[in-house]
Each structure stands twice: as C-alpha cells, then as structure tokens.
Amino acid sequence: MKSILKLTTILLLFTSITGCEEKDQQAKKPESAVFKTQLEALEKAKQVEQILQDEASQQRKMIDESTDNQKQ
User: Fold this and answer.
1) Helix (H) or strand (E) holding 72
2) pTM of this prediction?
3) Please, which pLDDT band fits residue 30 given cuts at 50, 70 and 90?
C-alpha cells in the first residue's frame, strides 16, 4: 500500500512539473515579441536623439560664428 502511495506521489509531482514547464515555454514566446518591439522603438528613439543633437550642435556653431563676426 505504501509503495502505491509513493508511486502516485511521484507521478503527481512529475506531472505537475511537466505541466509548469510547458506553460512557461508558451508564456515566453509572446513576451519576446513584446520586448523586441520595445527594443526597436528604443533604438529608433536613440537615432532620432542623435540627429537632434547633431542639428543642435550645428545650430550652436552657426550662432557662435555669427556672434564672433558681429564682435569684430
């Protein structure tokens, strides 16, 4: 009787562990897609930021040059 109880317990534990692993694998797939789109959006934002910084730098340079010319 005790051996049947042990065997049943082992089978239940194995089944529950196997069931959890399948759910974990299924849950990871949609999350990776969400993270991918978020990372792509972040990369685009970084590119836009770089463009804006370059343009601001050029504008500062033009302002500095024009004020230097006015002082002379």
Assistant:
1) none
2) 0.48
3) low
